């Protein structure tokens, strides 16, 4: 009972007040002070007065602005990006943006436009990106042409456009992207395409239009960066119509809900009459697949055959000698040798991801690809007890290897001896069985990035990462340490060149103060989603200017002596910690508000204690930890009573002494 009374006394004496600071000015979310604001879906019918005149980037979608005119945004003259998606805009009047000389991007997606004045886009000196998706446009003459000389991308998807013929005075000279996907364009004439002949290296998207006819020679007078005819049921129409055309990339993939014709070898002969470097045929089926199917692919350097139901490629394929990049993902191979790699002597990039069947690596299936630099075999249920020298024989130029999301792999000493030039190795979500006391990575002297996420490693093996002198990025997410502790002596001591270290979700309870002492080049440390307390902050005391992620740990109170360690870092994340918002933590709370510019995830950085402010953002909490007026009153009464008691005690003590002389 005495304890409770004393606690009550000191609580009253030094009463701490907690309150949430709220402001009516915070309707819009401030992402960057005085520059970037998000006012989405607030039911606004005008620009809030609280937005500063210096606003440059404004997301204002899902509000209500049926009519906009030259007074709607005139105060925000510094705008460079304006998103008005689905604001129910019907009318855009004259000179609406006349004051916005710096406006670069205007998004009008999802507005049922009825009228755009000829001078509605006057003002911006460098309007480069215009989005008119789902605006009900059926004729390109609806678009005002004034002041579009610098336009680089125009997005017109999901409208009712049937012809791509622009007005004669439409300035297409600087256009780089023109998107017509999901319209009603079924026929393309020479005259239609001629209106774009000013543009060079244009990317033109007709995806989802079901083009049924192209006038011969329509695309012959212009060089394109890319042409997209995705979802066209009959590719013969495209190949015949694109004769004598030149494009860097041709996208002819289809979709599962489209009933299209199978591709025949005869159909692909149309490629002999055009110049293409990159071709995408994903999700199609081949009616007759033979060694002569690709005889007109002599100029193709990139080929995507994802999900084309292939079970193997024939040997002796002709026409692919220049092929550099091949994508064979989501097919039906049983073994890697079924791709007959000798068909592609110049191949530098090979992607076989998500094979429908369990893929067996075989032995030396890729040994004819001596120039291969990138190999992606992820998501294939690959399993091997002894990987990977036999399987990757003769791939001495390989720089990137992805074996993530596979079945267990057994690694011996120098498991990647055949790939000594590897710079990136991704083994994430593949259980690794290390069958040797030495490191399986020890010969990879050029390795810079190693992803070992959820590989169930024996982290007590201090030699696991030996022999990686140039390793800069290490991801150990999901690998647990013995007793939840990183000791002073650990596997990280051999990788002194590290700059990025990810140790999230490792079940960590503590980190020794000297655990990272050998890491002198760090710029990024992720310790999120563990159970660390404030004591582990001392382990990063010798780091300066790093990104430090401490989100989702067990940090509640951070003592004053640890604050200098935090102050010397560039960015810190404390979100989703059970932070204490009482006077016991006043020093950290004060530091927090003074260093908001260093903090990431501040919207999710909330109080856990006391219950009265639980869930409130730390930046909105104000503590009063001094002596209050009530405290002063009680202190005065206490001192008065103490003085009286002391007086009588001394008086009685003296009286007792005189009696016993």
Describe this structure in words.
- This protein is an alpha/beta fold.
- Among the domains are: 383-471; 486-624, Ribonuclease Inhibitor (Leucine-rich repeat, LRR (right-handed beta-alpha superhelix), Alpha-Beta Horseshoe).
- 11% of the residues lie in helices and 18% in strands.
- The protein is built from 7 helices and 39 strands.
- It has a 25-stranded mixed beta sheet, with no helix packed on it.
- The chain starts with a helix and ends with a helix.
- The relative contact order is 0.05.
- Residues 1-26 have low confidence and may be disordered.
CATH topology name of one domain, in short, is Leucine-rich repeat, LRR (right-handed beta-alpha superhelix)
Give the mean pLDDT.
91
Number of helices: 7
Distance between the termini: 41 Å
Largest sheet: 25 strands, mixed
Please name the fourth-level CATH homologous superfamily of one domain.
Ribonuclease Inhibitor
The CATH architecture of one domain is: Alpha-Beta Horseshoe
Radius of gyration: 34 Å
Low-pLDDT regions: 1-26
Basic shape: flat
Structural class assignment: alpha/beta
Number of strands: 39
The helical percent reads 10-25%
What would CATH call the class of one domain?
A: Alpha Beta
């Amino acid at each position: 009972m005495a304890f409770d009374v004393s606690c009550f006394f000191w609580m009253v004496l030094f009463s701490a007040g907690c309150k949430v600071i709220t402001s009516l000015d915070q309707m819009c979310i401030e992402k960057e002070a005085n520059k970037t604001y998000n006012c989405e879906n607030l039911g606004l019918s005008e620009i809030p007065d609280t937005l500063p005149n210096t606003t440059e980037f404004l997301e204002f979608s899902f509000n209500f602005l049926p009519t906009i005119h030259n007074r709607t945004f005139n105060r925000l003259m510094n705008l460079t990006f304006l998103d008005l998606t689905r604001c129910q805009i019907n009318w855009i009047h004259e000179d609406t943006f006349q004051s916005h000389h710096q406006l670069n991007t205007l998004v009008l997606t999802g507005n049922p436009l009825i009228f755009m004045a000829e001078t509605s886009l006057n003002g911006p000196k460098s309007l480069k990106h215009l989005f008119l998706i789902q605006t009900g446009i059926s004729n390109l003459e609806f678009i005002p042409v004034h002041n579009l000389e610098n336009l680089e991308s125009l997005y017109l998807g999901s409208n009712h456009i049937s012809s791509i013929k622009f007005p004669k005075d439409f300035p297409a000279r600087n256009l780089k992207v023109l998107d017509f996907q999901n319209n009603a364009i079924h026929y393309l004439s020479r005259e239609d395409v001629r209106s774009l002949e000013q543009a060079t290296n244009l990317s033109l998207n007709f995806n989802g239009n079901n083009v049924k006819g192209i006038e011969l020679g329509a695309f012959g007078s212009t060089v394109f960066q890319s042409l997209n005819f995705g979802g066209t049921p009959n590719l013969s129409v495209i190949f015949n119509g694109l004769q004598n055309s030149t494009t860097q990339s041709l996208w002819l993939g289809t979709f599962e809900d489209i009933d299209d014709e199978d591709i025949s070898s005869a159909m692909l002969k149309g490629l002999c009459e055009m110049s293409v470097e990159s071709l995408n045929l994903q999700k199609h089926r081949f009616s007759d697949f033979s060694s002569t199917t690709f005889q007109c692919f002599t100029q193709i350097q990139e080929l995507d055959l994802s999900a084309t139901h292939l079970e193997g490629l024939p040997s002796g394929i002709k026409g692919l000698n220049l092929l550099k990049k091949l994508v064979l993902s989501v097919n039906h191979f049983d073994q890697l040798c079924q791709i007959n790699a000798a068909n592609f002597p110049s191949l530098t990039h090979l992607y076989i991801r998500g094979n429908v069947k369990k893929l067996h690596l075989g032995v030396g299936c890729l040994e004819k690809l001596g120039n291969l630099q990138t190999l992606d075999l992820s998501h294939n249920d690959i399993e091997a007890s002894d990987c990977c020298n036999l399987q990757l024989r003769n791939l001495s130029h390989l720089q990137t290897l992805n074996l993530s999301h596979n079945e267990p792999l057994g690694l011996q000493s120098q498991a990647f001896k055949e790939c000594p030039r590897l710079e990136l190795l991704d083994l994430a979500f593949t259980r690794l069985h290390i069958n040797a006391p030495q490191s399986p990575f020890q010969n990879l002297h050029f390795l810079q990035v190693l992803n070992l996420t959820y590989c169930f490693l024996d982290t007590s093996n201090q030699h696991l990462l030996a022999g990686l002198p140039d390793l800069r990025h290490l991801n150990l997410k999901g690998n647990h340490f013995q007793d939840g502790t990183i000791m002073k002596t650990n596997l990280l001591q051999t990788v002194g060149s590290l700059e990025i270290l990810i140790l999230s979700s490792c079940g960590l309870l503590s980190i020794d103060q000297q655990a990272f002492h050998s890491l002198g080049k760090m710029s990024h440390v992720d310790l999120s989603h563990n159970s660390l307390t404030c004591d582990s902050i001392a382990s990063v005391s010798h780091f300066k200017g790093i990104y430090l992620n401490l989100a989702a740990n067990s940090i509640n109170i951070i003592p004053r002596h640890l604050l200098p360690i935090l102050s010397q870092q560039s960015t810190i994340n404390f979100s989703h910690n059970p932070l204490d918002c009482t006077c016991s933590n006043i020093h950290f709370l004060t530091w927090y508000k003074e260093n908001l510019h260093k903090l990431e995830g501040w919207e999710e950085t909330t109080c856990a204690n006391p219950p009265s402010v639980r869930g409130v953002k730390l930046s909105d909490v104000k503590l009063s930890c001094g002596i209050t007026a009530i405290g002063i009153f009680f202190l005065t009464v206490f001192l008065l009573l103490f003085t009286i008691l002391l007086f009588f005690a001394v008086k009685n003590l003296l009286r007792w002494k005189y009696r016993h002389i």
